[in-house]
Amino acid sequence: MESFVNKNFKVVRAPVKSVTSPSGAVTMFKNLVSPRPVIEVAKCGQCGLCVNVCPVSPKAVDWRDGDKSKPPRHTYERCIRCFCCQEVCPERAIGVQTPLLGRLLYR
Description:
Blueprint: H1 25-33, E1 36-39, H2 49-53, E2 61-62, E3 73-74, H3 84-88, E4 94-97, H4 100-105
Antiparallel strand pairs: 1-4, 2-3
């Protein structure tokens, strides 16, 4: 296995930079059509694993004002759609939801 490891590989843990207009129209459109992770509040156990595993900085999923008594929330402008938060959730409280416009475009 060691022969397959590329020790010079650098992981970039930042949101993907895209060509955007000065108004941010591309980012806004992406957020209106792209599938995204959504926390089901009723199922969330507030364990914080999703917050810990989020690879971007600042975190795309984080506690509301540091209040760990409520479920974390997503900031979709930062989210790179890696779905790591969904994979680690022990309660299966994070699902994937496609906004209405995305569902209409990708039928």
